[in-house]
Amino acid sequence: MAAKIIDGKAFAAKIRGEVATHVARLKEEHGLTPGLAVVLVGEDPASQVYVRSKGKQTVEVGMNSVEHKLEPDTSEADLLSLIERLNADPAIHGILVQLPLPDHLDSDLVINAIDPAKDVDGFHISNVGLLGTGQKSMVPCTPLGCLMMLREEHGSLSGLDAVVVGRSNIVGKPMAQLLLGDSCTVTIAHSRTKDLPEVVRRADIVVAAVGRPEMVPGDWIKPGATVIDVGINRIEGEGGKTRLVGDCHYESCAAVAGAITPVPGGVGPMTIACLLANTVTACCRANG
Ligand code: GUN
Questions:
Q1: Ligand 1 touching residue 214 (CB < 6 A)
Q2: Which atom of ligand 1 is nearest to the CA of 47?
Q3: pLDDT over 90 for what percent of the chain?
Q4: The pLDDT of residue 144
Q5: Where does NADP(+) bind (predicted)?
Q6: Which CATH number fits domain 31-116: 3.10.105.10, 3.40.50.10860, 3.30.420.10, 3.40.350.10?
Q7: Active-site amino acid positions
Q8: Disulfide-capable partner of 162 in 89, 139, 184, 223 (CB 3.0 to 4.6 Å)?
Q9: Closest to 171 in 3D by CA, of 237, 91, 246
Q10: 75 labelled binding-site residue
Q11: Which residues contact 61 (CB under 8 A, 6 or more apart)?
Q12: Which superfamily does 141-268 belong to?
């Protein structure tokens, strides 16, 4: 039987609707408007697309959006002083520095300069530690979106075998923490994992986040498993046209899985919806 297609686009629209309602209430009842600052250094085309999309959706749900576009050769001192100003600005509740940063900038240093309470990406070392110890934190947006889709699909995740393919700080590691928090048995697989196909075949839940186009074929998937594809890879298709594909080979995985996220229209829209939700959360926490 063909897999159920998990509609991330529709789910994200529902979350944005809830965020918009919450924002309207904050305005009416408390005179508060959540504000999100996005910092982009350089001219990476993919990053520019993401940042534009974040700004547009922030405004659509009624929040304030501030974009800081900095030259590619911006010094670390200038970037850190901008972050300091945003940290001190009471109208800004969320700060996001778009990654990757140019090579001359130390990402860890920059991310850890953000006030953890405004770190809507959940990348600050304090938030990473809080998440890892099961305490209230800012949760990284992409893994949070994946978790919401999995909970919607399964109800309880307790006791399920989950394999996360990829060990990035942005997705793989926080995803594993969230699944552990929901009582899954979690394996993090990566490029050095021995017999990766066998490891993936054990999983009731597969989260693929490696950034390698169509790396996971259908014959690695346990029949009925849920496949969450975080990859967004642009490849050359027929006639020299580019097309977007995930880290999973969609057709073969969909033939075996119980449920699967498409690319595009799966995880991608959920990431920004969760960013908006995190910004509202940060605003509420900042104002008691
Ligand atoms: N680059 C790719 N994904 C992300 C993300 O979730 N947050 C930030 N800040 N940069 C990214």
A1: no
A2: 1
A3: 98
A4: 98
A5: 166-168, 232
A6: 3.40.50.10860
A7: 54, 98, 121
A8: 184
A9: 246
A10: no
A11: 16, 19, 20, 23, 276
A12: NAD(P)-binding Rossmann-like Domain (3.40.50.720)
Comparing 31-116 with 141-268, is the CATH topology the same? yes
pTM for this model (two decimals): 0.97
CB of 121 sitting under 6 A from ligand 1: yes
| CA–CA distances in Å: residue 216 to residues 132, 211, 224 | 28, 11, 16
Would you kindly state where each structural domain of the chain is located, as residue ranges?
31-116, 141-268
Residues 187, 165: Cα–Cα separation, whole Å: 8
User: Is the model's pLDDT at 172 over the cut of 80?
Assistant: yes
Looking at residue 216, the DSSP 8-state letter turns out to be: B
Give the distance (Å) from ligand 1 centre to CA of residue 92.
Answer: 19
What was the pLDDT predicted at 95?
Answer: 99
- In the numeric block, the tokens 């259908």 are attached to 218
Predicted complex ipTM: 0.96
Q: How far is CA 18 from CA 51, 78, 94, 150, 286, in A?
A: 22, 37, 18, 19, 20
The runs of H, that is alpha helices, within the chain are: 8-30, 45-60, 76-88, 107-111, 125-132, 141-154, 172-181, 196-201, 250-256, 267-286
- What is the gyration radius of the CA atoms in the chain, in angstroms? 19
Give how far the C-alpha of residue 19 lies from the chain's centroid of Cα atoms, to the nearest Å: 17
Q: How far is CA 171 from CA 18, 141, 179, 286, in A?
A: 24, 9, 12, 26
Residue with tokens 């005179």: 31
